[in-house]
Structure prediction request, 167 residues.
Amino acid sequence: MSSRSKPARSRTQPAENKRPLTRSEVMARIGPKDTKPEILLRRGLHRAGFRYSLHRRDLPGKPDIVLPKWRAVIFVNGCYWHGHEGCMHFRLPKGNAEFWAAKIGRTQARDLENVEACQTLGWRVLTVWECTMRGRTALEPDVLIDQVGRWLTSGDERGVVEGVQPA
Prediction:
């Protein structure tokens, strides 16, 4: 029997000797670019007529969205990875809590440095949190884009868009 006549294994069918991924392996597979919240925001901005570039390496922190016409950058932060205080989507893991607290603390310090460095270079900075687009705290897409658009046209140096916290 030739190898061509064998039925192809489905991509969803696990290999017999495949082991489940560890938490570390799962976390390592999460990429820093083109996340679902980032893509949703980009689509809405484009639909609203805002043109942008992505992940410019010449700017501190490689902002997710750069709007040169408005001299503005947008960082789309994941609530878990960036330690969004008071958010229902952020909770330190109980296992290895010291490690995670230190890791998220370093991320928060780096975020602050990047915001300040962008502002020093004359860029306005907006932070959009993942909770604005996820779960019970999510804003309606039109409301989110309206808030971002109002900030862009306002001239404010700094802004933050957060999800609606449930009562």
Remarks:
- The chain has a mean pLDDT of 84.
- The domain at 33-161 is CATH 3.40.960.10 (Endonuclease; Chain A).
- Helices lie at 23-28, 36-47, 97-120, 141-154.
- The two ends are 65 Å apart (CA to CA).
